[in-house]
Amino acid sequence: MGKDTVDSNARKRSSWAGAAGVAVALGLTELFAGLSSSIPSAISAIGAFVVDITPGWLESFAISTFGTADKAVLAVGIFVVALLFGWFLGRASARSPIPIVIGFIVFAGLGIVAQLSEAGSEAAVVVVTTSIATGIGLLVWYGIKEWTAPKERVITDGDVPSIDRRRLLLAVGAAATVSIVTLSIGRAKIRSRAQAQIAALELREPIEVAADPTAENDFGLKLVPPIVVSNLTFYRIDSALVVPTIDPEEWTLTIKGMVDNEVIMTYQDLMELPLVERYATLACVSNEVGDNLVGNALWTGVPLTDVLDLAGVQAGADQLASRSIDGWSAGFPTELAYDGREPLIVVGMNREVLPANHGFPARLVVPGLYGYVSATKWLTEIELTTWDAFDGFWIPRGWAKEGPIKTQSRIDRPRNGKHIELGNYTFGGVAWAPTRGIERVEVQIDDGLWNEAELTVPLSENSWVQWAYEAEVGDGPHTMRVRATDGTGETQPEERVRPKPDGAEGWHMIRFVGSEDA
After folding, report:
1. What is the DSSP string of 419-447?
2. Which of 112, 140, 299, 303 has its CA at a distance of 20 to 30 angstroms from the CA of residue 98?
3. How far is CA 467 from CA 276, 293, 435, in A?
4. Residue 342 Ramachandran class (φ > 0 left, ψ -120 to 50 alpha, else beta)
C-alpha cells in the first residue's frame, strides 16, 4: 500500500474520531447544565450569541420558514457545525495532536465565554466542568483513533487492512450513544428543574375574576381553535434556545430610569399586589396571512400601571423599555400603558402559574401590540426612557418601532386543499383586532357575493372571536376568501403584504373540493 493511501486512511480515522470527541464533549456540557443551575447550557449560550449576530433578514426567514421549530433547527445546526469542526480538526491531526488540542481549547474557551454571559452562571464551576468535558472529548478522539488503527499481520497478498471498519463503527456508535444519552438527560433535567419550581407555587385568588367561556363564546367547531387556547398548544416565538430556569426566590424585577423612585420587587412582592384576570389575544408580527402564530388566553397578573405608579413616571418618559433575563428587549410608548388597554405584568396563564416556556416567573402582556415590541418573557427589568434613547431587540434588525396588531381573519375549516362532502357545510375560523374588537366577518365563495358570517360573543375587546358560515357545497373545486372589519369600521385591505416591517396584511384565501367521496 502506498504512503498516500496510508495517510488517507489515517486521516479518515482521525476525522471520525474528532467528530465523536466533539459530540461527547457537547453531551457532557449539557449533562452538567442539567445537574446544576449555575451551569448554563453551552449549546443554548452559543445559540444566543449566534442569534445576537445574525442579520435581521435571516432571523425573519428562520421564523417564517420554521415557525415555532426555529429554536430546534438552530440547536441542531449548532451541533452539526460542531461535529464538522471536530471532523476537520481530527483530519488535520492524523499525524500530530497539536491542531486538535489547540482547536478544542479554543472551542472550549468560546463556550465558556458564551456560558458566562448567561444570567446565574458561576465562573469557577463553568470553567471546571467545561474543561472536564473538553478533556474527555480529546481522550475519546485519541482512543478511537488508536483503537481503530490497522493491526500488524503477515502480508500475503501485497496489501494491509486500510481501516478496522468494525471497530470504527463500534467506537463512533458508542460515542454517538453517549452523546445522545447525556444530551437527553441534561435537557430533561433542565426542564424538570423548572417544572418542579413552578409546581410548588400556587396563584392567589384575583380580586377581579373573569367569567368562564360559554356556548355563546365558542362554537365548538372541529378544526377551529378553541376560544381559549391551552398552555400546551399556545404558540411560542422567542430567542431562547432553552427556556431559562429561574429560581423565584432569587428573581427580582427592577423599575428604573426616568422614575421618582427606583423599585426592586421580589416574586413575593409582586404576588402580594392585587391580581386581576383578563382575556387577551397575542400575535407575532411574523405571522403570515392565514398562519397560526396567534392565540387567546386568560392572563392573571398585576396591572402594569399599579407598578409604574409605585415608581412614579417622570414627565418626558415617553417609552417603556423592558428586558428579559436572557437579554432580549422591547419598547413601546408609555402612554399606551395608561390608555385603557389594561396591560399586565403576568404571573398566571389560564389559571395556572405562568409556565416556564411562556415566561415564568413574570412577563408582560400588552393588548393590541405585537409581541416583538411588548410581550417580554422572563421579565427582569422595566426602564422608563425616551423614544429616541432606546431600541428594542428587533428594531435594529429592520422591524418597525411601533407595532400595533393589525386586523386579521383566518379560515380554519376546512383546511386548504381538502375535499369536503357535498351539501350543507359549516365553514369557520377566527378573527382578531385587539383593543378595537371585531364588528363583522364576511366570506366569499368562488366569485360570488360577500356574505356576513355569524360571530361568537367576544370574551373581551382584546380577544379574538370565532366566525361560522353555513353554505351549500357543490361538486368540484372552489375558492373561499375572508375579510374582517374592526370596531372602528376599518376593513382589512385585500392586497397581500408580507410581515416585515410591521405585520402582514391581506385577505386569507383557501381552495377546497366538493366531492361525493369526501
Report:
1. EE-SEEEEEEEEEE-TTT-EEEEEEEETT
2. 112
3. 28, 18, 18
4. left
Angle 155-161-165 from CA coordinates, rounded to 5°: 155
Length of the chain: 518
Residue pair 319/331 in contact (Cβ under 8 Å)? The answer is yes
pLDDT-derived band at 210 (thresholds 50, 70, 90) equals very high
C-alpha span between 482 and 152 (Å, rounded): 76
Question: Quick check: 371 pLDDT over 90?
Answer: yes
Q: In terms of C-beta density within 10 A (0-12 exposed, 13-18 middle, 19 or more buried), how is residue 14 classed?
A: buried
| Number of helical H runs and strand E runs in the chain | 9, 19
pLDDT top residue among 428 and 38: 428
What are the chain's domains? Answer: 3-152+163-199 (no CATH), 252-397 (3.90.420.10), 408-514 (2.60.40.650)
What's the confidence (pLDDT) of residue 433? 98
Contact 21, 105 (CB under 8 A): no
* Cα 324 from Cα 501, distance rounded (Å): 23
Tens digits of per-residue pLDDT, 133-184? 999 999 999 999 888 877 654 444 444 445 567 888 888 899 999 999 998 8
pTM confidence score: 0.78
Average pLDDT for 27-43: 86
Q: How far apart are CA 4 and CA 492, in angstroms?
A: 69
Nearest to 360 by CA among 253, 480, 471, 497: 253
123 residue type, one letter: A
Q: Distance between CA 455 and CA 439 in Å, rounded?
A: 9
pLDDT in tens, 310-328: 999 999 999 999 999 988 9
pLDDT of residue 216: 97
Give the number of other Cβ atoms within 10 Å of residue 72's Cβ. 11
Q: How confident is the model at residue 58 (pLDDT cuts 50, 70, 90)?
A: low
Amino acid, res. 89:
L
Share of the chain above pLDDT 70, in %: 90
- Strands 252-257 and 379-385, by their bridges, are parallel
Which pLDDT score, from 0 to 100, does residue 2 have? 44
DSSP, collapsed to helix, strand or coil, labels residue 81 as helix
Contact 410, 290 (CB under 8 A): yes
**Cis, peptide link before residue 414, omega less than 30° from 0:** yes
DSSP per-residue codes, 96-120: -SHHHHHHHHHHHHHHHHHHHTSTT
Q: Do 372 and 285 touch, CB atoms closer than 8 A? A: yes
Strand-pair category, 508-514 with 419-420: parallel
Listed in order, strand segments (DSSP E) in 293-333 are 294-303, 319-324, 329-333
Nearest to 236 by CA among 461, 32, 408, 69: 69
In degrees rounded to 5, what are phi and psi of residue 366? -120, 100
